[in-house]
Amino acid sequence: MSAWSGSLPPPGEERSEFIEDKGVLLRHGSSLALMALVSTALNESDEFGEVDPEDDWKKWTEGRPELKLYYGALIDPSRDGADAVACILRAVLDPSTPGRASGRNRIIIDYVTTRKAFRGKGLASAAVSFVEQAAAATGSNCYVLALEESCTYWMGQGFILEPSRRLTARLNVFPDTHLLRRAADPPDEGEASDDQFLEARRQLEEEGSDSGEDEDEDEGEALVIALSLLASHPDAAERDASRALLLKAATNLTNDPSNPKYRRLRKQNAIIAAKVVKVTGAPEVLACMGFEDAGDEWVVRDDDV
What pTM was computed for the model? Predict the structure, then answer.
């Protein structure tokens, strides 16, 4: 990116930056024109066609009137009108307050999508990179609300599952998403006023659904936590090698569950030792796949098929 001013425009305005290596124009801010552009693109996208941006924003601001929306759009200058919109992003700004011990602002990405014609060019990554730069320039922690199926992608981008239940209750306003924080950012435990959201979430959990659905939710949460631990492993090469092995193990077990060689991983095996035993979070991912720790090996029991 070139010539970024390093600051965000005032509320109701927008700025433009040219991303040289992508050949696109980045419009960002909170002007009415940009808000309409991003909202329309969201409704026309494959992933978020059912989204009602106005209804979603009501959920965000319920008990949180200080939050502000921020928009970004990557524009192909060689095209006109709606056809020029290549990638869009919507984020929520949560400014710091005197009661916030961390003293940090927060930027939460809640939607990002690239139109089909522009996919494979790294535009979504460029948009997220801009948000991360903006977060660094404004003293903000960077978060994302991710659907379960996209958590692995975000963890690969350096995000981890937010461990604070209080902060999660404040910022994760949707039932089908997880709150992830950029691993490089300092912890933020939220503030006392956020306990109202935590209590409301506890009440919903107590009212609950049937036990089968609760069990599914617990298993999904365990997998996200395990993947978050894996994403925190400090060595990128070891982390990637572990992910590849775990994916292969899961694929083998799914395709041929009765094959005994796919149901047993010996810890003394050099490959398993290097790519599972020594890698943070890898054993937890195996546990989510049905492997039990049997001392010198991990085993899938007959009743776990």
Answer: 0.74
